[in-house]
Amino acid sequence: MTKDMTKGAPLKLVLGFSLPLLFGFLFQQFYNLVDTVIVGRFLGVDNLAAVGATGSVNFLVIGFCMGVCSGFSIPISHKFGAGDYVGMRKFVANCTWLALAFSAVMTVCTTLLCKRILVLMRTPEDILEGAYTYIWIIFLGIPTVFLYNTVSGVIRALGDSRTPVIFLILSSFINIGLDLFFILELDMGVAGAAWATVIAQGVSGAGCLLYMIRKFEILHIRREEWKPDAHRMRVLCGMGLPMGLQYSITAIGSVILQSATNTLGSAAVAAVTAASRIGNFLACPYDALGSTMATYGGQNVGAGRLERIGIGLKSCVLLGAGYAVIAVLAAVLFGRPLAMLFLDGSQGAIIGQVKLFLVINTAFYFPLALVNIVRFLIQGMGFPTFAILAGVFEMIARAIAGFVLVPAFGFVGACLGSPIAWVLADAFLIPAYFHVRGVLEKRLSQGGSKEALTRPE
């Protein structure tokens, strides 16, 4: 059920690990896409804008949760790569305690504060209540986010990228079915879309957990291994918090950009919502490659096989460059038909804005590829602090777009926010990778052990 990524051809390993992940990310984005299509088609542009107005604050909070869980899996992949299965199980146990604590605190805080945040973001009055209803329910489901992402992160750390996908596909169909039932049959509006997402996430997390308990004997934790360990918790937080903060810091820029976009009116918000959903779908290969490199980097550093990291990186970058060409062609040729999944033909101006957003963003997909691949590789190598710094650069770029470009250029300024963020992040991440590689090579050349290679910064 596990896969050792420290042996064998890197390109073959990267493809074999990333393809199931890609399939899972596609399904995840597919049901997000269907959510938006159903809301846009059956509840109208205002409700579509209401869901879209929560996008950046959703990313701010849920992205933090996902980042923390991804960070928790890195010490687990290090121990697996080193063959220390007792230490690995102790990290899994302490990861569980931390996930429970984080989910409880974050659920309480976010559900209490989300209305105030939406008001501060200058959410248009005509969509404020719908936005609040939607995001309050999503935040109520934070424990299900931690459940799925913690368990799937542990499973992927052991080299199994397929199992989480199976349960994600199952949850996708549940989500779509519940969307239709809650919205069309029960007339629950945007609340129905939110509850469908939360329930589906819970099902996928519970399924992953039960499967892991039954099938992964290597993860059967003994009674004494469940004991909370302050040192291991510090190591887990040292990896998880920087990765979570990286998402949140990046999202602060998105919140600023969203606030600026909100001033352009509900139509612009609806256009950005539809285009972002399509863009997230098109960017799935980069999410898969990034997650692959986190596990690949973690296992190979844990095994002390630094020479394999550069080869794997080159393989990923070539794959990312090839896909960037495909993505921009898809945006140019199919931008309008894709927009019409959400909107009817009478809304020509909004449809045109959706296509413009897609073309501008996909034209910068190679920088996006580097952001995902290099950032996650550095994190897997055990240097999560660099993720925060990369997020700071993205935040600055999106803030510039929100404060300067949107007031000056309107909707085009909103389209340029993410591309500028990717380019600026790359300007930091590429030198950072060579620095990290140099630090690890120096430790190894000085006779460092595997434990020294995985020592937190």
Largest beta sheet, briefly?
none
Shape: globular
Annotation, overall tally of beta strands: 0
State the end-to-end CA separation: 31 Å
Secondary-structure element string: HHHHHHHHHHHHHHHHH
Proportion of residues in helical segments: over 70%
Give me the secondary-structure category.
mainly alpha
Structure, explained:
This protein is mainly α and 457 residues long. The protein has one domain. Helices cover 84% and strands 0% of the residues. The protein has helices spanning 10-43, 45-53, 55-82, 85-120, 125-140, 142-157, 163-185, 190-215, 230-262, 266-282, 284-302, 307-339, 348-362, 365-380, 385-409, 411-445, 450-453. Helix 2 (45-53) crosses helix 10 (266-282). The radius of gyration is 21 Å and the shape is globular. The two termini are 31 Å apart. The model has no long low-confidence stretch (mean pLDDT 84).
Give the SSE map.
Layout: H1 10-43, H2 45-53, H3 55-82, H4 85-120, H5 125-140, H6 142-157, H7 163-185, H8 190-215, H9 230-262, H10 266-282, H11 284-302, H12 307-339, H13 348-362, H14 365-380, H15 385-409, H16 411-445, H17 450-453
Provide a short characterization of the protein structure.
The chain is mostly helical and 457 residues long. The chain has helices at 10-43, 45-53, 55-82, 85-120, 125-140, 142-157, 163-185, 190-215, 230-262, 266-282, 284-302, 307-339, 348-362, 365-380, 385-409, 411-445, 450-453.
What attributes does this structure have?
mainly alpha; 17 helices; 457 residues
